[in-house]
Amino acid sequence: MFSPQGPSLRELAIQALSSVEHGYDLLAPKFDHTPFRTPDSVLDATADALRPLGPFGEGLDVCCGTGAGMRTLEAVCQGRITGVDLSAGMLAQARAAHPAAEWVRADVRALPFAEAFDVAVSFGALGHFLPADRPALFAGVYRALRPGGLFAFPIGAPPPITSGWYWALLGFDLAMRVRNAVWRPPFVMYYRTCPPHALRDDLTAAGFTVTTVPLAPLGRRDDGSPRYRLALARKPTAEADRPYRRPA
């Protein structure tokens, strides 16, 4: 599961008992040698799906980590590309790997941008946000995009209840909830808190128009459904085009 250059079990345990920020600072030098780094196949499939929707000018990678998402942005953007992350350690690795990009350290629940980008992407990060945090995250991405801008991220198909992965992910989330109940600071990372219908509802509430497309290069499951879909959240070109939201 891990390459010889990856972290040891001891290092992973220390990370798991840290905060999200400090944990990733510790993991950063070896992160790209773990299975947590988004595979190139997912990055390339995302670029293939975005390319017909462009070309885009400036691009933003939300929760950029060590900068893997630059592979996608470089393929579809004609202007500057920027990564934003809370972990200084991850940003240091990203800056070394992609010196031509711009890097910003910030809490993505309070993104410091306003109508600065034409496209935003995010890979493998939504599990770090509790459902109560997603509205702030999506509102910040909405503000960061220019009118007509696009926010895109891949969504893996949930494993069936008969799958070993279903029970492994359920067990991981339960263990994480126990850990966070008895240990501080919390380390927020859950695999089952981002069902597609909830993501769609939160994106729509933020003002986006939401669609999805299959990521065909990543294959299909036994039932014929795609293994991955790409969520496409479009910021309207004018305020009058925003989806209607029922008053609270």
From TrEMBL:
One of its GO terms (molecular function) is methyltransferase activity. It comes from Actinoallomurus liliacearum. Residues 60-149 form the Methyltransferase domain. The keyword Repeat does not apply. It holds the Pfam family Methyltransf_25. InterPro entries: Methyltransf_25, SAM-dependent_MTases_sf. The keyword Transferase applies. The lineage of its organism: Bacteria, Bacillati, Actinomycetota, Actinomycetes, Streptosporangiales. It comes from the Bacteria. This is Class I SAM-dependent methyltransferase. Keywords: Methyltransferase, Transferase. CDD domains: AdoMet_MTases. One of its GO terms (biological process) is methylation.
